[in-house]
Amino acid sequence: MMELAWLFGLFLVMLGFLLIISSFFGDRDSGPKEGYPEFPERKEKKFGGVVLIGPIPIVFGDARMAVIALILAIMLMLLSFSLILGWFR
Asked: Using one digit for the tens of pLDDT, what is the confidence trace for 17-51?
């Protein structure tokens, strides 16, 4: 049974390599360019995020998204401090 699983895994790896190599030979045409506006309308993009370096949050992004991210980061920071200090034993 172990040999069958090993062979199946090897087959999947080889199939993956074959698909990657065959993707280079495909047609790269993205389709007709007629009928598309030259300058489409741009929609406003909102973003926000948190990078936790240890228990310290670094917040970036749009004002509303940054506030939401900051609240979540503070909650995660408090949870990590409480777990580190052993308050949930």
From this structure: 999 898 888 766 666 666 666 666 777 777 777 78
Q: What are phi and psi of 57, to 5 degrees?
A: -90, 140
Q: Distance between CA atoms of 57 and 81, rounded to whole angstroms?
A: 13
Q: Is the pTM of this model over 0.85?
A: no
The domains of the chain are located at 47-89
Q: Any residues with CB less than 8 A from the CB of 79 and at least 6 apart, and which?
A: none
The Cα 74–Cα 53 span in angstroms is 13
Q: How far is CA 84 from CA 46, 70, 80, 87, in A?
A: 34, 21, 6, 8
CA atoms within 13 A on the CB side of 81: 9
Looking at residue 49, its pLDDT comes to: 77
* Cα Rg, the chain, nearest whole Å: 25
Structure tokens at 41: 């309308």
